[in-house]
Amino acid sequence: MALALSACAGTTTPPVVPGQAGSITQQERQYGAEAHPQLLAQFGGEYNAPVTNYVERVGKNIAAQSGLATAREAYTVTLLNSPVNNAFAIPGGYIYTTRQLVGLMDNEAELAAVLGHEVGHVAARHSQTRQQAQQQNSLLGVLGAVVSGVLLGNSQLGQLGQELAMQGSQLLTLKYSRSQEHQADDLGIAYLSSAGYDPMAMASVLESLAQQNTLDARLAGSSGSNAVPEWASTHPDPASRVRDAFQEAQGMPGTVTNRDAFLTAVDGMLYGDDPKQGIVDGNSFVHPELRFAFDAPNGFFLVNGTQAVSISGQSGRGQLAGAPYSGDLNNYVGKVFGQLAGEGQPQVQPAQIQRTTVNGLPAAYGTARANTGNGAVDVTVFAYEFSNSQAFHFVTITQAGQAGVFNPMYQSMRRISASQAAAVKPRKIDVVTVKSGDTLQGLANRMAYDNGKLERFLVLNSLDTNAVLQPGQKVKLVVY
């Protein structure tokens, strides 16, 4: 491969020489230091377990290949306690990956590939380019995109109250251009080779992501238009990049994968939702610590975030979140509506706010109509009082006249008992050794899911239905 990676035509992405990126500036360090705590809050905080130190070591080693800084101490590598497949890096030497994405990987080289790709975005100063081309960041500004089925980054729909202050950090994880993605892939491959890793790991981890994206979409009952996994929404089309990454890595030195060390590190790692943040179980969401549950309407699927639960389907989008509560539900609903519009944007307010009771919970709701580039939409806020100081609310968006599609969900909000809360169990990764006589289906039957056991097992281990298991081989299971 040529040393200088040139940008694709039609972009402002400058060429970057692997290992010779411009040094981290003082301004970038300050920017990263200010954004870091916001990102931790947004993505579940740091995951504290033995695997955390392992990820940090690998991340610092691969980041040092970029030339942004030669001292590994200049980088802050964080394993996030998040159940979505995501990874990103921001100026200032801050690198992030979620435990969910790490759980999908097969070896240390793939971990280095993902982190190297993100460092490549920083080395090429891609975030600065995107900020210059940033569109308006008000919620109303993305309503049309939401209605048309395009999820932006961490799904800004419903990121209200204190979360509005985090829009700057959310914009860091918005979608990259195709040329920027390819450049980051190429840089990450160069970093892999420089560090001694197998450079083919970039192609293999992209293939795993593509397979996971397809499986997520199928399990959500969608061809893909509604089920945009987190990493896929911020890093477009990994499937189309697999072949390019494979070709780029041809002939480059590097053989290290460290599969056994990686599997030892991830054994026992939490997988999926953390009960402290609530659990998605089919079309139901249960929060054992806050002691409530609700059900998504038929045809909708749920994605649990750190501060909000997203609800997505063909006919609408929504989120459940909480906000400061002073004991007046009408005022609470009005404030949520007031925060939907960005600075200088027209306010969205319902004609009236109505009161009701849902499964013993005092509730209030209102619907307002707003105009977007994709036509009129109905915005509904439905709030519930759980105590004098605690309330939660749905914000939903549908095409005009279709707001009632979410009525079953509004009516499903309920408290749960202590015994129901205690019954919620976390899932974790269990690395097992294949024994003589073990089969794909037999191992898959041990997966802690009610559906898609075999498909989940195959994707988790980068296997296909024709794979032949060998005694002594190690594979990952997801168990309670």
- CA-based shape: globular
Structural class: alpha+beta
Radius of gyration in whole Å, from Cα? 23 Å
Distance between the termini: 45 Å
Quickly count the helices.
17
The counted number of beta strands is 17
What kind of assembly state do the chains in view correspond to?
single chain
Strand order of the largest sheet: 8-9-10-14-13-12-11
Strand content: 15-25%
The main β sheet shows up as:
7 strands, antiparallel
List low-pLDDT spans. 1-13, 133-174, 223-228
Count of discrete structural domains? 3
Helix content: 25-40%
Average pLDDT value? Answer: 84
GO molecular function, one term: metal ion binding
Protein name: Peptidase M48 Ste24p
Cofactor: Zn(2+)
Organism: Croceicoccus marinus
Please describe what this structure looks like.
With 480 residues, the chain is α+β, with helices and mostly antiparallel strands. The chain has three domains: 26-134 and 174-271, no CATH class; 275-422, 3-Layer(aba) Sandwich (Protein Transport Mog1p, Chain A); 427-479, Roll (Membrane-bound Lytic Murein Transglycosylase D, Chain A), CATH 3.10.350.10. 35% of the residues lie in helices and 21% in strands. The chain contains 17 helices and 17 strands. The strands form four sheets. A seven-stranded antiparallel β-sheet has the order 8-9-10-14-13-12-11. The chain has a four-stranded antiparallel β-sheet with strand order 5-6-7-15. α2 crosses α4 (108-123), α4 crosses α8 (178-194) and α9 runs antiparallel to α11. The chain is globular. Its cofactor is Zn(2+). This is Peptidase M48 Ste24p. Residues 430-477 form the LysM domain.
